[in-house]
């Protein structure tokens, strides 16, 4: 269905043409959430070159395009997913951690000191009424 949208009208950046351009390092329209994360990282003033970025979640909507954006920014990138073995090991290594899964309190006490953590997962917390 996404291919029915003209690439230049794909404001979400999900059309295969736009994803391909991002992977070729010549982005035009970019997926909003990953691009927003990059803009947020810019505000920290941290030099991204050589930083180890770990992404938790490999979706086509956030995880994979996030990896491409971070690569463009000069990061070394690790993408994890539901089948990743020893996920905590990867999280401990992260200078930048982008969590793109719906899970509350996934890594208590695991993230290293000084790491930048950005959680873009949609979480619903149940409260008793």
TrEMBL record:
GO terms for biological process: tetrahydrofolate interconversion. GO terms for cellular component: cytosol. GO terms for molecular function: methenyltetrahydrofolate cyclohydrolase activity; methylenetetrahydrofolate dehydrogenase (NADP+) activity. This is methenyltetrahydrofolate cyclohydrolase. InterPro entries: NAD(P)-bd_dom_sf (IPR036291), THF_DH/CycHdrlase (IPR000672), THF_DH/CycHdrlase_NAD-bd_dom (IPR020631). The gene is folD_1. Residues 31-125 form the Tetrahydrofolate dehydrogenase/cyclohydrolase NAD(P)-binding domain. CDD domains: NAD_bind_m-THF_DH_Cyclohyd. Its EC number is 3.5.4.9. It comes from the Bacteria.
């Amino acid at each position: 269905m996404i291919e029915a949208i003209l690439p230049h009208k794909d404001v979400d950046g999900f059309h295969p043409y736009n994803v391909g351009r991002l992977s070729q390092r010549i982005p035009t329209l970019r997926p909003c959430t990953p691009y927003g994360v990059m803009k947020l990282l810019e505000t920290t003033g941290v030099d991204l070159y050589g930083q180890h970025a770990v992404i938790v979640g490999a979706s086509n909507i956030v995880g994979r395009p996030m990896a491409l954006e971070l690569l463009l920014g000069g990061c070394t990138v690790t993408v994890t997913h539901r089948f990743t073995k020893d996920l905590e090991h990867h999280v401990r290594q992260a200078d930048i951690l982008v969590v793109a899964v719906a899970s509350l309190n996934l890594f208590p006490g695991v993230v290293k000191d000084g790491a930048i953590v950005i959680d873009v997962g949609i979480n619903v917390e149940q409260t008793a009424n």
